[in-house]
Amino acid sequence: MSAQGKVLLVTGGSRGIGAAICRLAARAGYRVAFSYVSNDAAAKTLVAELKVSGGAAIAIKGDVGNEADVLAMFAEVDRAYGRLDAFVNNAGVVDMKARVDEMSVARLERMMRINVVGSILCAREAVKRMSTLHGGKGGAIVNISSAAATLGSPGEYVDYAASKGAIDTFTIGLAKEVATEGVRVNAVRPGIIDTEIHASGGQPDRISAIRGLVPMKREGKAEEVAHAVIWLLSAEASYTTGSILNVSGGR
Ligand code: NAP
């Protein structure tokens, strides 16, 4: 089934998993909007790429952990496209490898503000536009969790794992809350995926260091996560809500 003419917003869509979701979505016929926080060049390059393949695409700069930026991002989508059919809560951060007994309150607040509060604020705005309770026509939301939510990430970033555990619980609760309002809410738990997030947490060699722990003995590609997301957003997943899909090579 085609998504022709439908509108998708992806947070943190300029690089990594988010960019792969934008590329597949454009191919499926979605008009795409994505957000990013700092890397203007990557955002500009992706918009140009998506437009070359015939699609509509806009990039919106802003921090998902800042309510004013979140409101401005959704207002920009309203202005540009006038509708919202699908939303992906993808923006997320890690931090430097640390034990819990070394973590500062500033670190914990940043992690929870971006990964948890940001995701809930964005979903709030998506529901206001999609839910039949608010006059919307329905829609689908996918939250990007992590295998860390089930593994706990000891000695690395338990705070990040806990933030993704919160995303799992949020997915289950919101899915039930809006189940009769035309909105489906699901999550995907990627395992170790080849993106720049590992370097951003000070571990550029993380993939080669832990590849052997994955039952499939390899890392995943961003596109392999994106395929799962696009399916969950699609009409083919019409009876799937409150689900959390592992895309982690068996880990
Ligand atoms: P990435 O390569 O580091 O890309 C992060 C994207 O999010 C970029 O577009 C970045 O924008 C944007 N971003 C970062 N902080 C933001 C903020 N505060 N507000 C708005 N946008 C922000 O990350 P990734 O590996 O693709 O990860 C995407 C999601 O998958 C995250 O939720 C992550 O936790 C999850 N995940 C990743 C893996 C993995 O192995 N890669 C595994 C499990 C889960 P700029 O380009 O402007 O910096």
UniProtKB/TrEMBL annotation:
Q: Which InterPro entries match?
A: KR_dom (IPR057326), NAD(P)-bd_dom_sf (IPR036291), Sc_DH/Rdtase_CS (IPR020904), SDR_fam (IPR002347)
Keywords on record: Oxidoreductase
State the superkingdom.
Bacteria
The signal peptide, as residue positions, is: none
- Domain Ketoreductase: residue ranges: 6-195
Q: Which SUPFAM superfamilies match?
A: NAD(P)-binding Rossmann-fold domains (SSF51735)
A GO MF label: oxidoreductase activity, acting on CH-OH group of donors
Gene3D superfamilies of this UniProt entry?
A: NAD(P)-binding Rossmann-like Domain
Key word Thylakoid present: no
Question: To which protein family does this belong?
Answer: Belongs to the short-chain dehydrogenases/reductases (SDR) family.
Family annotation (PANTHER family): NADPH-DEPENDENT ALDEHYDE REDUCTASE-LIKE PROTEIN, CHLOROPLASTIC-RELATED, RE15974P
Mind telling me what this protein is named?
SDR family oxidoreductase
The organism encoding this protein is Aminobacter anthyllidis
